[in-house]
Amino acid sequence: MGGAYIPPMAKKPKSDPPNYKVIAENRRARHDYAIEEDLEVGIVLMGSEVKSLREGGGANIAESYAAVEEGELWLVNGRIAPPYAQAKTWGGHEERRKRKLLASKRELARLWNATQRKGMTLVPLVLYFNHKGLAKMKIGIAKGKKHHDKRADAAKQDWNRQKARLLRDKG
Question: Which is deepest, 22, 27, 95, 146, by most CB within 10 Å?
Fold first, then answer.
């Protein structure tokens, strides 16, 4: 009757893909602005907007900006594609409307400070669903680049590419 007890093997957890999904990205922002820091904020959406984003309806944040108005943070000129077919019977949503962004009062004060006193602007960088499935937006506190700054960045990127190519070929 000897022998060691061998417990049954544990089942491996299901490897469901995480809910994280990028919906829209503002790639032009990093070219046009020098991003000093970024901040994750929530976004208030209607049901038809969420459904439209989840079904791949698409969004565009390239022409949009964020602004602090009357103690609240707003996304201005952001576009969420027309609602999915069933939402039309319930009214749906406007494609371009001001959408409220959620941030703490301390963060709001800091953002207002940056935009009013330091001449910075709030640029949306990425709109995404986080791992919990909530719609979030990453906004950057940015300063506009001058033309010569853009040229310097392009030259720096070129040099980094050449350097990587040289190291890869010789290495």
Answer: 95
Give, for all 171 residues of the chain, the pLDDT tens digit.
Answer: 566 777 776 665 555 556 788 888 988 888 888 888 899 999 998 888 888 888 876 888 888 989 888 889 999 998 888 766 665 656 667 778 899 999 999 999 998 988 887 878 999 999 999 988 899 999 999 888 777 777 888 888 888 999 898 888 886
Helix or strand (DSSP H, E) at 163: helix 147-170
Show the domain range for 129.
Answer: 21-145
Q: CA triplet 155, 159, 164: central angle to 5 degrees? A: 150
- The reply to whether 5 falls in a domain is no
Beta bridge partners of 60: 79
In a domain, 66, yes or no: yes
- Torsion angle defined by CA atoms of residues 43, 71, 91 and 59, in that order, rounded to the nearest 10 degrees: -40
Instruction: Specify if 83 maps to a domain.
Output: yes
